[in-house]
Amino acid sequence: MLLAVLAPVAAGCAREGTGSGPVTILANWFPQAELGGYFHAAEQKPGEGSKERPIKVLPGGPGIQTIPQVAAGKAVFGVATGADDLLVARREGLPIVAVFAPFRANITCLTAHAESGVKGFADLDGRRVAKVQSRPWWEYLKRHYKLDRVQEINYTGSLAAFKKDKGLVQQCYVTSEPFYLKRDGVPVTTLSISDQGGYAAYSNVLFTTEETIKRDPDLVRSVVARVARGWSAFSADPATGKQAILAANKDTDPGVVDFAAQVMRSGRWVSSPPGSMSEAQWLRIRDQVAEAGLVPRSTDVKGAFTTQFLPTK
Questions:
Q1: φ and ψ at 131, to 5 degrees?
Q2: What is the distance between the alpha carbons of residues 7 and 9, in angstroms, rounded to a whole number?
Q3: How many CA atoms lie within 13 A of 297 on its CB side?
Q4: Among 55, 44, 24, 134, CA closest to 89
Q5: Which residues fall within 8 angstroms of residue 217, CB to CB, at 6 or more apart?
Q6: Counting beta carbons within 10 angstroms of the beta carbon of residue 70, is it exposed (0 to 12), middle (13 to 18) or buried (19 or more)?
Q7: How confident is the model over 209-228, as a mean pLDDT?
Q8: Which of 194-219 are b and which e, b meaning 16 or more Cβ less than 10 Å from the residue's Cβ?
Q9: Which residue, 113, 138, 276, 288, is most buried by CB atoms nearer than 10 A?
Q10: Are the CB atoms for 131 and 155 separated by under 8 Å?
Q11: What is the pTM of this model?
């Protein structure tokens, strides 16, 4: 209902898009390595005489819903945790469009204590799982693996409760929590919803509104090009993005940024070329979100994303 109410005000984003100040990207979480390419792009200031506007990344957090806020004109661009969220939002009437996908697969995972006996997703039935509410990937896993007896607990972003509770299973990122758990000597089993779960959704997707694309395609092309360079640079050498992340988030361990960059360099997660998307994968995402009961299987994905602004070289 919230999404449907906010839909009529989506044009506000386009008005900001035609201004002269910084172009805003609303992040889906606190400043962290999983947003590194965006922060690197924001550090690259336009050259003298350039018509490009500087990029400003606005930090997110547990209470930040990037899709309705971008639709309401709070930022020109936003970062969606997954491409699946965009399909659900469009189903609710929000005219938002994915323009860049830095991660070709979902980097979400679930972690359990090694002694818990959890070896696969089917083993989650009857257990307590801490996760962010209303996640399409979770609804898919519940139906696909017939998880009818799971006790769902709200995810707070902290590992404190998980470390104390040997029976708790918790949501995480493959690029983040495994570092902290290994550092603190906590043996765990990690289940990737992409690798073990087969879930296809792109992660940390950059999106904007249909109206912004219509009114200022040059702005969209400029931002996407700089974001693409930012992700390429961050993957090769995270120093610039790391400095920006640490400055914006004093609670971040510098080691986790290095760990995440190393995971990204493995080639398993980062899109190549940067930001690339395909209709075939969007159709697969659509089918999985449909299996979760969140969109019709007949949903047309062509309006949900565009590759027209991705660099050609």
A1: -155, 160
A2: 6
A3: 4
A4: 134
A5: 309
A6: buried
A7: 97
A8: beebebbbbbbbbbbbbbbbebbeeb
A9: 288
A10: yes
A11: 0.91
Q: Looking at the predicted structure, is the pLDDT value of residue 11 above 70?
A: no
Q: What is the mean pLDDT of the chain?
A: 91
Distance, in Å, from the CA atom of 78 to the CA atom of 205, rounded to the nearest integer, reads 8
Q: Which range (44-58, 162-176, 217-231) has the least confidence? A: 44-58
C-alpha distances out from residue 49 to 40, 46, 216, Å: 21, 8, 20
- Rounded distance between C-alpha atoms, residue 55 and residue 95, angstroms: 23
Task: Give the whole-angstrom CA distance, residue 219 versus residue 212.
Answer: 9
Complete DSSP assignment for the chain: -HHHHHGGGTHHHHHHHTSSSPEEEE-SSSS-GGGHHHHHHHHSPPPTT--PPPEEEEP--TT--HHHHHHTTS-SEEEEEEHHHHHHHHHTT--EEEEEEEESS--EEEEEEGGG---SGGGGTTSEEEE-SS-HHHHHHHHHTT--S-EEEE--S-SHHHHH-TTEEEEEETTTHHHHHHHTT--EEEEETTTTT-----EEEEEEEHHHHHH-HHHHHHHHHHHHHHHHHHHH-THHHHHHHHHH-TT--HHHHHHHHHHHHTSSSEEEEEE---HHHHHHHHHHHHHTTSS-TT---TTTB--TTS---
Residue type, 51: K
